[in-house]
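lol forgot to send this yesterday, sorry. struct tokens for the thing we talked abt
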């Protein structure tokens, strides 16, 4: 969740939504994202809305404390119940992200999940995920999460090579994420993800292959692999500007992506979104699919974004300001926007084209249809889905996904 917030119209003090946003809501899936904004240290590439203890000291006092955080977030879940009304609507997915959620006690994460369960109810087959730093969990912690209702966990692995982790300022040791997978399985987690990053300055093709080998060998049923993006204002951007490490390269990113596709597919993983692979349909991250398909979700926590029925809003960034708003009985929303039908059409194209199923050609305007025909001729869209009325990316199209999307939207 990037730290920069957009502009928008004010959010009412009670968080009330327009009637149009709630119309037909019970027929739409609902997910919850619970943001934990704390990290032990700040990674050099990170631009997310997260805070270390040093960064919070003197800038929020007791309100911004990790010790109080679970109770504060529970207050927002209760606000969500008031805003969304009393119509029966079970929650399909819960995703706890950060930051490093596992810096909180396992009981705190279970308490946050419990609030969603008590206020809304969870679907019988609800997917409940938390992100985790490999060094911040142990078998007892994982067992407590599983007993509390979590059934999916995502470990930040990034790389199996120490020198790559060092450039990223990651604090875990190589081999620890793989052991975490085994510990999570032993605790009873049905689904386990490993997050990888490719294209780090100083990383070689062999380094990347070693990371993929280690991840595959650990036995997760889901792997996410993201190209490193150097965000302005980060420590890594400053190091590159000073010439201490080389700039990342798009051609290298493309080569690394092809390596990932080759190795993961050979190991039984199928891509279902440009940066995500799973060993089965059940292994897919359903929560992220809610995002990509424009469903409803409530994002609780500092800087968290939400979307319900075509209304998108976002919370104040700082944990102290967030806690203060809820303590005063106010919505922590900082701004919101009402999406037009055209906005929603464009966003469907932007997001759904990244999925293996693709996007309906019926969503495209005349210019977009013409661009889709050219993309098909250029081998960027697959012929079978196209004949069935869908624009779906080929492997080559995935490498150029951003350009293809721009053409289809324009």
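and heres what i got for the seq, position by position
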């Amino acid at each position: 969740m990037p730290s920069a917030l957009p502009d928008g119209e004010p959010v009412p003090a009670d968080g009330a939504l327009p009637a149009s946003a709630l119309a037909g809501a019970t027929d739409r899936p609902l997910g919850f994202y619970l943001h934990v904004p704390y990290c032990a240290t700040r990674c050099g590439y990170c631009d997310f809305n997260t805070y270390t203890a040093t960064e919070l000291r003197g800038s929020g006092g007791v309100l911004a404390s990790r010790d109080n955080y679970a109770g504060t977030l529970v207050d927002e879940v209760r606000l969500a119940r008031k805003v969304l009304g009393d119509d029966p609507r079970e929650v399909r997915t819960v995703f706890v992200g950060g930051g490093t959620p596992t810096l909180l006690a396992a009981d705190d994460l279970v308490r946050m999940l419990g609030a969603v369960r008590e206020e809304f109810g969870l679907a019988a087959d609800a997917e409940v995920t938390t992100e985790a730093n490999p060094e911040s969990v142990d078998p007892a912690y994982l067992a407590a999460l599983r007993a509390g209702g979590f059934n999916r966990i995502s470990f930040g692995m990034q790389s199996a090579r120490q020198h790559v982790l060092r450039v990223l300022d990651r604090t875990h040791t190589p081999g620890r994420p793989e052991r975490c997978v085994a510990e999570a399985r032993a605790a009873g987690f049905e689904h386990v993800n490993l997050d990888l990053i490719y294209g780090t300055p100083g990383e070689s093709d062999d380094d990347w292959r070693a990371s993929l080998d280690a991840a595959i060998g650990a036995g997760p049923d889901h792997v996410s692999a993201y190209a490193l993006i150097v965000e302005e204002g980060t420590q890594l951007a400053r190091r590159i500007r000073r010439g201490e490490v080389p700039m990342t390269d798009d051609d290298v990113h493309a080569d690394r992506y092809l390596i990932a596709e080759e190795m993961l597919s050979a190991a039984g993983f199928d891509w279902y979104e440009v940066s995500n692979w799973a060993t089965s349909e059940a292994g897919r991250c359903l929560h992220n699919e809610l995002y990509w398909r424009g469903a409803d979700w409530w994002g609780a926590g500092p800087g968290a974004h939400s979307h319900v029925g075509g209304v998108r809003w976002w919370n104040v960034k700082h944990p102290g300001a967030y806690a203060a708003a809820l303590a005063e009985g106010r919505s922590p929303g900082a701004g919101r926007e009402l999406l037009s039908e055209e906005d929603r059409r464009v966003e469907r194209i932007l997001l759904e084209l990244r999925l293996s199923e693709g996007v309906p050609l019926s969503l495209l305007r005349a210019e977009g249809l013409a661009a889709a025909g050219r993309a098909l001729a250029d081998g960027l869209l697959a012929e079978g889905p196209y004949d069935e009325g869908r624009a779906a990316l080929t492997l080559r199209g995935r490498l150029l996904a951003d350009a293809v999307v721009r053409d289809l939207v324009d």
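The mean pLDDT is 92. anyway ping me if u want another try
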